[in-house]
Amino acid sequence: MDHFNYHDGALHAEEVPLSRIAAEVGTPVYVYSAATLTRHFGLFRQALDWTEHLVCFAVKANSNLAVLKLMGDMGAGMDVVSGGEYARARAAGVPGDRIVFSGVGKTLAEMRQAIEGGIRQFNIESEPEMRALSELAASMGAEVPVAIRVNPDVDAKTHEKIATGKSENKFGIPIARAREVYAEAARLPGLRVVGVDVHIGSQLTDLEPYRLAYGKVAELTHALRADGHSITRLDLGGGLGIPYRRDNNAPPLPIEYGQVIRDTVGDLGCEIEIEPGRNIVGNAGILLTSVIWLKEGEGRDFLIVDAAMNDLLRPSMYGAHHDIVPVTEPVPGADVRTFDVVGPVCESGDTFQKGAQLPGLAAGDLVAFRSAGAYGAVMASEYNSRPLVPEVLVRGDQFAVIRARPTFEEMLARDTIPEWL
Ligand code: LLP
């Protein structure tokens, strides 16, 4: 459920008509609903209310400072994967002891930044990383809490580019070798082993892969405790999918996911961390765009909009589907036309949807790409020298620009022409 609905014939974000945002901010623009974000975060908390837990929002899904502050103020932790994300979480007011640091390629500079700034836990992904972190922490006189990310070799049954829990993926340490790696971790100075970490992929629409993976984590936890480690936390990653289409195939709910966690690891007495990103913010955002031209091609018509692949990369990168809806509510029974919805970028891959069924639209009309709050703005670029798409946050009847569209002057000012040229 989200808060983008038609009222009085016009699509609104909460109580704000999207046409008002388009008129004041221009298009393309991302629009987020605070009420939807709050609701989704609450559902995860509720799903884990049977135990001590921390819901760590995966910052990579949407790293706007206003979004992070909203989450942080509700008590969310943050899962970060770079020094930039760490800086954003801190700037949004999230204390270090609520930040976990994941990622296969943390640099020494990033580790130092997080140790100095405060960190809840590093999720270690390899032995070289573990040894480097130990040496750095010891040299700084610190003892940092660590979990080791294990790769359970489970098929998450999702798109190959976002599956992370198979042995062929670059993530984590093979679960079969985990005991040996934990033994080394326990011997190394500067590290304090606190838990086990796993994340098997993104946009999961089936709970069985979770059940399998978490079952393996439970077994490992017993074995590690028998080896003398104190395992007090389990970081179970993120990945719960969202409905991208308004049909009856909705993925499982957070409450059902929470039950799988309870069934598999609930009796271990561990604090549970989870790292949802998409499920919290995906359906809390839309990309609002204007029709530039209707172009009649041979055998097909094109709806050319002012958003492009650089603003929302998912369709061209993963073949992802985003529902496209007109901002003016279609009258029941109105004629629909079939369009290929495309952007202005000079690549055929700049296609959002082929064969979209939409009511009669004209140049200047507004349409919205739904489910665009996660992995939308964060993956945008300035390809074709198109200004980075701005972001707006709505709460009730108010809205604010939370990232402004850069001017051409600002874009050009980042380049330097050397004096010898
Ligand atoms: N934790 C870790 C360690 C991750 O790598 C990820 C996502 C998450 C949590 C959050 O997963 P979520 O709950 O959002 O599914 N750009 C792709 C998705 C890449 C996901 C990468 N890792 C897309 O647009 O579908």
UniProtKB/TrEMBL annotation:
EC numbers for this chain: 4.1.1.20
InterPro entries membership: Ala_racemase/Decarboxylase_C, DAP_deCOOHase_LysA, De-COase2_C, De-COase2_N, De-COase2_pyr-phos_BS, Orn/DAP/Arg_de-COase, PLP-binding_barrel
GO molecular function, one term: pyridoxal phosphate binding
Pathway: Amino-acid biosynthesis; L-lysine biosynthesis via DAP pathway; L-lysine from DL-2,6-diaminopimelate: step 1/1
Keyword Lyase appears in the UniProt entry: yes
Highest taxon in the source lineage: Bacteria
Cofactor(s) this protein cannot do without: pyridoxal 5'-phosphate
Positions of the Orn/DAP/Arg decarboxylase 2 N-terminal domain: 36-281
PROSITE patterns referenced in this protein's UniProt entry, alphabetically: ODR_DC_2_1
Gene3D superfamilies according to UniProt: Alanine racemase, Lyase, Ornithine Decarboxylase, Chain A, domain 1
Similarity comment text for this entry: Belongs to the Orn/Lys/Arg decarboxylase class-II family. LysA subfamily.
Protein name (Swiss-Prot/TrEMBL): Diaminopimelate decarboxylase
Species: Paracoccus alkanivorans
Lineage, highest ranks first: Bacteria, Pseudomonadati, Pseudomonadota, Alphaproteobacteria, Rhodobacterales
